[in-house]
Design a protein that fits this description.
0% strand, 324 residues, mainly alpha, 77% helix
């Protein structure tokens, strides 16, 4: 898009990047809210998801850079929203599968992280109560309409300019070799959410313990499948950095919200304090290059959650005494 704007109107591409990132920045907030509301039917949880997403390290740092990561996140999350809007508790319409898949394919022209949208769609279709033959047809249709714009565009750029995403991956594999998670780059995985990982595991445990007590159980399982598949296959790309790994944030955020809901009336508090810790720790690391800050932030957040839980239980017990 920035290149097209520069070509048509002679406006520097840097302004095109800034414009599309501003649109994606605010558009994401709306899409996140609408998506989580489709799942939970709960205003508070939807707003919690927006706060949590906006206060993660990669979003804070890279959302308005001259990069296209924010646009990729926007396409991925929007595809998830469209999947839920079109197919959650509704009959499958082939034209809507084509629409969502083609939308993700177009998003891949902006940023490859949009691919989480098609991963979620396929997981959602697999978990639907449909005959196997019908599911395979849905998957084939979704894959085809996703690949049409993606493959066609890369073939065109390769033919005319000698550049494509496949060539880029090949060159990286030749220069750097195959990558996977190890002791050095695992920190990048942590940096997707920083201290919110505590709430994620709390939310995941709450869901797996009693999944039938959560609305739209299949949707959460679709997120789990998306998360597992993406984490295993992302190193193929092969860049293990937080801003690229952040494409899995939609699957993480829904469980972060479940974790925060454990604290009931203090859910906003634990989300906002966690976000402040994320942002402050990120600023200190970039400003002073101090070591051990991630560990210190995690310990601090654990201490805060412990205090909140003690206070919450004391208040609960006090109210019970008054009622009795």
């Amino acid at each position: 898009m920035p290149g097209l704007i520069e070509y048509l109107f002679a406006i520097s591409a840097k302004y095109g990047f800034l414009l599309q990132n501003i649109f994606a920045y605010f558009g994401l907030g709306f899409i996140i809210y609408k998506t989580v509301y489709l799942i939970t039917k709960n205003f508070r949880q939807s707003l919690l998801a927006v706060f949590a997403y906006y206060m993660c390290n990669p979003f804070v740092v890279y959302s308005l850079f001259y990069l296209v990561d924010t646009v990729g996140w926007f396409f991925g999350f929007t595809a998830i929203y469209l999947t839920l809007k079109f197919f959650q508790n509704k009959e499958i319409e082939l034209k809507k599968i084509m629409l969502v898949s083609f939308f993700v394919g177009i998003g891949m022209l902006c940023k490859e992280s949009a691919i989480v949208g098609i991963i979620f769609l396929l997981a959602f279709l697999v978990l639907r109560k449909e005959p196997i033959r019908k599911k395979l047809g849905f998957i084939f249709l979704a894959g085809s309409f996703f690949l049409i714009p993606f493959l066609l565009s890369n073939l065109i750029t390769q033919y005319y300019f000698g550049v494509s995403v496949f060539q880029r991956v090949h060159e990286q594999l030749v220069s750097e070799g195959k990558l996977f998670y190890n002791g050095n780059n695992i920190q990048q995985l942590y940096r997707i959410m920083d201290v919110y990982w505590v709430l994620f595991f709390m939310g995941l445990w709450r869901f797996l313990k009693k999944p039938m007590q959560v609305k739209n159980t299949k949707t959460y399982f679709s997120f789990i499948i998306m998360l597992g598949f993406a984490l295993v296959t992302m190193p193929i790309y092969p860049f293990i950095v937080d801003r690229i790994l952040f494409m899995i944030a939609p699957a993480l955020i829904v469980f972060v919200v479940l974790g925060a809901e454990y604290f009931k009336g203090y859910s906003y508090l634990v989300i906002i304090i966690g976000g402040i810790i994320n942002i402050v720790i990120t600023w200190i690391i970039y400003r002073y290059n101090l070591t051990g800050m991630l560990r210190n932030g995690l310990f601090l957040y654990g201490f805060v959650l412990l205090i909140v839980e003690i206070w919450r239980r004391r208040k609960y017990n006090r109210l019970n005494l008054i009622d009795s």
